[in-house]
Amino acid sequence: MPEHEIDALKLVFSDFHLGRGVYLPSGLPNLLEEFHQDAKLAELLEYYSVGPGRRGAGDVEAVFNGDFLDYLSVDVSGGYPDALFEALAVEATALICDGHPIVFDALRRFAATPGCRIRYQLGNHDPAIAWPSVQEYLRQRVGAPIEFGFDGYEFDDVRIEHGHQHEVGHQFDTAQLILPAGPLGRKEPIINFPFGCFFVACFLTGLRGRRHYISQVVPFRLYLRWAFVNDFWFALWAGIRVGAFFIKMRFIRHPTRFSRFSKTLKILRDIFWPPRLEKVAARLLDRAAYRILIMGHNHEACLRTYPHGKQYLNSGTWTGFTSFEPPLLGRHLVRSYVILEREAGGTWRAALKQWFGKPAVEESLHW
User: Fold this and answer.
1) How far apart, in whole angstroms, are the C-alpha atoms of residue 97 and residue 364?
2) Alpha-carbon gap, residue 52 to 3, rounded angstroms
3) What is the CATH number of domain 8-354?
């Protein structure tokens, strides 16, 4: 985009997956922590709020489009949460904030700058933000209002959504994110987890203890082919465990865990052959009134402009990932984000950006 003054600016990020910090209380590295870009994010927020990146914009909004915080990888009260009661969710939120003080100090400075505001959209790893007490804790930690959204965020001819709702296993019932107390003797309300949350918390987290990178490979279907050739015994063991897990979940009579057999098959299909968001976006844009669609979720940054002039952008991730796609084969760290700009009286223009920040003498490696 050319350098010129604008009246409004939006920054869209996704899939940061902040856990409880780089180090555990024992001093050992936290192998489940995926976000190591705290200082870089602080630089970016400063650049677009009080630095030259703002370019005269009176309204600057930072949109964290899902999976900003990763509640499914935070060991709280002695385990990983396969059930998010309100008190547990607040405790997990505090652990994440304490593990990333640079990020939350930067958010506080950003939100304190006149004309700057923050919005947090629901993703499949951060359902705890449905609790009002979690929302209030985050507002207090940032020292400013935060808007929370649980479905798509639409304005003018733009739509922003995380993208998890297009996979059966990760679909939330947005009309009932919190189940009331009562069913099966529950004494307090609970987050209405989709199947994918149980899969991550109860199964995938355990696999990461053996292969810590398993949640950072894209696309997963190509990794599976590689694993059966190059890591056969682990792949076989994991495959048997997946089957046993699905059988167990199939027969648990619990309102937040049980799924019908037909749905179980659809979930299995989406795990091994997930829908390509690029194709999903093309279908949505073809029949939608909006002109720009922005997603995250699959960690694959991209920009596509279709013949009818509409655009799909994926903001990617700031966590390291290993790609098995031939054009990107190998290990990558791309601090990608989407920027939306609007001149006075004009339309929104979107671009996919990569943040480099200030040169560093050294960086820690987290392989």
Assistant:
1) 21
2) 10
3) 3.60.21.10
